[in-house]
Each structure stands twice: as structure tokens, then as C-alpha cells.
Amino acid sequence: MRINPVAAILLRHFYLLRGSPARMLPLFVWVAIDMVLWGFTTRYLNTIASSGFDFVPVLLGAVLLYDFLIRVMQGVTLIFFEDVWSRNFLNIFATPLTISEYVTGLVLSSIVTSSVGLIVMLLLATTVFGLSISIYGLMFVPFLLVLFLFGIALGIFGSAVVLRLGPASEWFIWPIPGLIAPFAGVFYPLSTLPEWMRAVSSLLPPSYVFEGMRAIIADGALSGTSLPWGGGLAAFYLVLACLFFKRIHRYAVSTGLIARYSAESVN
Predict the structure, then answer these.
(1) Residue 84 CB neighbour total at 10 angstroms
(2) Quick check: helix, strand or coil at residue 119?
(3) From the centroid of its chain, how far is CA 254?
(4) How far is the C-alpha of 47 from the C-alpha of 55, rounded, in Å?
(5) H helix intervals, 86-175
(6) pTM attached to this predicted model
(7) For a pLDDT cut of 70, what percent of the chain falls above it?
(8) How many Cβ atoms from other residues are within 10 Å of residue 138's Cβ?
(9) For the chain, what are the domain ranges?
(10) Closest CA to 129 of 29, 31, 38
């Protein structure tokens, strides 16, 4: 893999952001709104909780991690969609750029954009609403890593779906985080779910992160195998997503689909 083509994808994204406030503002505006909304919600819940239970690390921490997952996924898909909206695929793949270099460029772009959102969320949650990251200890880093790997996998998978079905199918991709949230147990323990939902949850890496977060808050520790299992699943899904994208790209090139790419190409 060559460095220059990957850097070119990243540089192109930088120029798009620099030249358009409409692209720059969503990097931190929506996460800031979520932090403010849920921050005041947790404050209110703390005032009416009779047991003295602190909702800030449980709910606001969950929102922070869940929003990070969403930003990672969208960091990949939005850059891909820029090429969809501008009908730029033929220009890109007419160059010697390989598919692995293109996907790596998408991932690096996602790292940059999701990092911006994470910093904004941490600043608001800690300085305004008193969320102490130290309550999660060193496990906060593995939590982010598992969510990052799974978010990248979702972003690559979603991009492959749109590449295969056409630009109009992007509306299949936006709801994915919302569909996962009930099974991942973002705001409640998995024990509250029916058995069939818990079976689905066991296949989702975020469920291990949010269960681990609550275990640390409640008991100060978590199962030694649960988070590594979630990380292994996330890495497995990432490999599958990359193979899926590569296969779809090969199909789009061999059938000429990539040359006919248009808003009417969903079929």
C-alpha cells in the first residue's frame, strides 16, 4: 500500500471541510446538542432519584460512547457519499488508486472527524456536567477501541451497500445505528431484554462495551473475557466488511455498474 494515494484521499477531505462551513459544523454541533440534552436530563434525574444514584456516568457516559460509534461510522460513509453525490467514482478509479488505499483513506478521514466529535463531547461532559472519565479507569480506552473498530466495519459495509444498489439506497444506511441501539443495551442492562433479543445482543460488540461500562460503575470491575470477546467480534466484522466492499467493487467494475452510477441505479 502506498502512502501518497492514501494521503491524497485525506487531503481531499480536508479541502472539502475547509471550504464549506456546512460540512464543518456537523462535526461538533450534533454531538454538542446531544451532550447538552442528555446532560440536563441526567441532572434532572439526579434531583428526583431517592436513592442518591448518580445518573451522569451511566446515561451521559453511554450517550458519549454511543455518539462516538455513530460518528466513526458516519466518518466513513459521509466521505464515501461525497464521491456518490459528486459522481466522482470514475475519476477516482481511473487513477492507479487501489481499493485498499481508498478504504484506508476513508478510515483515516473517519479517525479525524470522530476525534473532533469525541473531544467536543468530552469537554462538555466533563466541564459542564461533571462526568469524570476516571470512573471508567483505563478501560475507557478499550471501550473506545471496540466501538471504533465496529463503527469502521459498519461504515465500510454501508458504503458497499450503496455502491451496489445506488445513491438512493443511502437511506438504508442512516438508520443502522438506531436499529442496533435496542439490542446493544445502550441505556439499560441486557437482562431487561427478551431472550431472542439477548441472543442478537451477544453478536454485537457494542453490547459488551455498554454492559462493561455499567459493571465498572456498579462493581468497579468487569468480566475478564467479555470485552476481549467484543473486541474480537468487532475485528471479525471489520475483516468481513472489507472483503464485502472489495467484492462489491469488483462486481461494479466487471459489470460496468460503476460507469452507470446514477440516482436511478437502485435495482
Answers:
(1) 20
(2) helix
(3) 30
(4) 10
(5) 89-93, 99-127, 140-165
(6) 0.90
(7) 96
(8) 7
(9) 3-260
(10) 38
Confidence at residue 260, expressed as pLDDT on a 0 to 100 scale: 65
Residue 57's nearest CA partner among 126, 118, 123, 148 is 126
Give me the residue label for grid cell 441472543: 199
Kindly list the distances between the CA atom of residue 110 and the CA atoms of 118, 186, 242, in Å, as whole numbers in the listed order: 12, 22, 15
pLDDT in tens, 64-112: 999 999 999 998 998 888 888 877 777 777 777 888 888 898 899 899 9
Measured in whole angstroms, the distance separating CA 116 from the mean position of its chain's CA atoms is: 13
Please write the tens of the pLDDT for every residue from 165-216: 887 788 889 899 999 999 999 999 999 999 999 999 999 999 999 999 988 8
pLDDT value at residue 227: 86
Alpha carbon distance 153, 76 (integer Å): 9
Who contacts 63 (Cβ-Cβ below 8 Å, separation ≥6)?
34, 35, 38, 186
Q: Helix/strand/coil (H, E, C) string of 230-261? A: HHHHHHHHHHHHHHHHHHHHHHHHHHCHHHHC
Structure confidence at residue 8 (pLDDT): 84
d(CA 241, CA 5): 21
Contact yes or no for 147/206 (Cβ under 8 A): yes
Which of 102, 129, 117, 148 has the alpha carbon at shortest distance from 246? 102
Residues in the chain: 267
